[in-house]
Specification:
Layout (H helix, E strand, L loop, with lengths): L1 E6 L3 H7 L22 H9 L10 H6 L2 E8 L19 H9 L5 H10 L1 H11 L4 H11 L3 H8 L5 H15 L15 E3 L6 H6 L3 E8 L2 H4 E3 L7 E3 L2 H14 L3 E3 L17 H6 L21 H10 L16 E3 L5 H18 L8 E5 L9 H7 L8 E2 L3 E2 L7 H9 L3 E4 L17 H21 L12 E3 L22 H11 L1 H11 L7 H20 L2
Parallel strand pairs: 1-2, 2-4, 3-4, 4-7, 7-8, 9-12, 12-13
Antiparallel strand pairs: 5-6, 10-11
């Protein structure tokens, strides 16, 4: 049995049917969440280890993979993906981005030289795609596999993040407890939505999938359309934002991934997009910054107010029951600057004052930063120099979107959770990693986990063995990732646990370092550790903290 801390099971069903003839109303037989048919082309992409342009985590795939605890992330797609990069315009280095995308193994100087030589081509490409025109629409359709009407809707004035969030929440709730339909319906489990931890076990015992709703990106409720601004967005009024947070609590959301790929006007997000997307979209406002709200008349750290509102705590670090249930904060996508400030100004002061009611830190779909990331300070110093080929020779992706040693310390000491992403780049693998050998991809995931174990040990915390209680899977399936080739979809995840156990108990290198990585005082065997990573850690954490 498995848990997945971060995935998007409705991506293909909800996103592909919105703004089509089979839209939300009226309902019809095609409008469902259980499974999406695959084409022969999809099958070839899966076998060749291509980037996912196929369903990864619909409920048929989750059922076949024995993923019984699913943290389904609601996510209104950010407008910035579809509006071009007006800041760069015709000066966008599109050819450089293309070279990085397809020829990353060439020396950096050669790729730069080629991009200079081919600059006239970049200018023409910029004219064609750095806008909202037909060529841009075609490119989005090819890359994101989204139909033209949907793309035009994202670009339009009526596209409203919060309305889209409400529709997606309603979509999940519309099919809970219902008998599945479509291909192989008899192999698909029903699902139900848990709105507290004590509902999870009864759902699973009833042979259903337990779904816990989360939300990716505070932009989903904090921003609204405004013509004439650089990103066509502005903050909603304070009273409305407060109402929306209460709505999330009433829906029963467990945690919120506060930042995402573009500015939410409140807190800095980590660099997350490769060069090609940096040139044709504009995520640079607030990228790699901290709490820096720049709206006149609003405090610069205005974002902290809303984090406290979600957590139901006061500015003086007290618990405020009147604010309702606690919605936890997921630090994935927050910049290293923002994470440091969040830990130091909110998490640590509150936990020191409330030792029996600690705020745990969640990082829902991450990898390990690796050597040179012993502290957030060191990572912050290097953040603005991150490149597409910032891979460490030992196999780690050194962008500040990944977790450094200081993050591991805070998460371990607060009893938090670390979801190990299945995205190749986040795990430290270059785009040329084409093998489908399961042993290789288990090693890649284990490499990140073991790196974090050593980080916990190196930080000198009191009980570093507790880091083993923090790991789980956070696949990011259907988040348009390039998954590890042995685990392209949720269906294949059932192979992960047995393969990880074999790796931990038979690999010669692991046998040599086993005393180091299991740490003094660790009461867990390799078999228990595998069970914890696959299911128990996420399950027990949710039972404890989802009230």
């Amino acid at each position: 049995m498995l848990a997945d801390l971060h995935c998007h099971p409705a991506t293909w069903s909800f996103q592909k049917l919105r703004n089509s003839k089979n839209d939300v109303t009226p309902r019809n037989s095609q409008w469902h969440i259980w499974n999406i048919s695959r084409t022969k082309k999809d099958e070839r992409k899966i076998k060749k280890g291509k980037r996912a342009s196929y369903a990864q985590s619909d409920f048929k795939l989750l059922s076949k993979g024995d993923v019984r605890l699913v943290f389904a992330s609601l996510y209104p797609i950010e407008k910035g993906f579809f509006m071009g990069n007006r800041a760069k315009g015709i000066n966008a280095n599109i050819i450089g981005g293309v070279l990085n995308n397809f020829l990353l193994n060439l020396p950096d100087w050669l790729r730069k030289g080629l991009s200079v030589v081919l600059k006239p081509v970049s200018v023409v490409a910029s004219v064609l795609v750095n806008n909202e025109g037909q060529v841009r629409d075609f490119l989005q359709k090819m890359v994101m596999k989204t139909h033209k009407a949907r793309i035009n809707f994202f670009q339009s004035d009526p596209y409203d993040y919060y309305k889209e969030l409400e529709l997606e929440n309603e979509f999940y709730n519309s099919f809970k407890k219902l008998d599945p339909t479509g291909d192989e319906a008899t192999e698909i489990l029903k699902y139900d939505i848990a709105t507290s931890g004590n509902q999870i076990d009864p759902i699973i015992i009833a042979n259903q999938v337990a779904v816990v709703l989360t939300m990716e990106g505070f932009h989903s409720i904090a921003l609204q359309f405004k013509q004439g601004t650089n990103d066509y967005l502005e903050l909603v009024p304070e009273a409305e934002l407060k109402r929306r947070i209460q709505q999330l609590k009433d829906w029963g959301l467990f945690f919120v991934t506060f930042s995402h790929h573009f500015s939410n006007h409140l807190v800095g997000h980590a660099h997350s997009l490769p060069l090609i997307l940096m040139e044709i979209a504009n995520p640079e406002p607030l990228m790699n910054k901290g709490f820096e709200c720049s709206v006149p008349g609003i405090p610069v750290d205005y974002g902290k107010k809303w984090i406290r509102e979600l957590l139901s705590i006061s500015e003086s670090h007290g618990n405020v029951p009147a604010l309702g249930r606690r919605v936890l904060i997921d630090v994935k996508h927050m910049s290293a600057v923002s994470r440091k400030e969040y830990y130091n100004s909110i998490v640590k002061p509150y936990n020191e004052k409330n030792v029996t009611d600690k705020i745990p830190v969640i990082a829902s779909h991450c990898g390990y930063y690796g050597p040179g990331g012993e502290s957030l300070h060191l990572v912050i110093q290097k953040a603005n120099g991150e490149k597409d080929d910032s891979f460490h020779k030992k196999g780690f992706y050194q962008w500040n979107i990944n977790l450094c040693d200081e993050d591991i310390e805070v998460i371990t000491e607060t009893g938090g959770l670390i979801g190990i992403s299945l995205d190749q780049r986040i795990l430290g693998e270059k785009p040329d990693a084409k093998t489908t050998e399961i042993e290789y991809w288990v090693m890649v995931m284990a490499r990140n986990i073991i790196g974090m174990v050593y980080a916990a040990k190196g930080r000198g915390i009191a009980n570093p063995e507790n880091v083993w209680k923090c790991f789980t899977i956070g696949s990011d399936y259907d988040g348009l990732i390039d998954p590890g080739n042995s685990f392209p979809r949720a269906e294949e995840l059932k192979e992960f646990g047995p393969a990880l156990l074999i790796y931990l108990t038979t690999n010669p290198v692991i046998q040599k370092i086993l005393p180091d990585i299991f740490l003094a005082g660790n009461p867990f065997t390799p078999a228990q550790v595998v069970e914890m990573i696959c299911f128990k850690n996420a399950h027990d954490f949710t039972i404890t903290h989802f009230k």
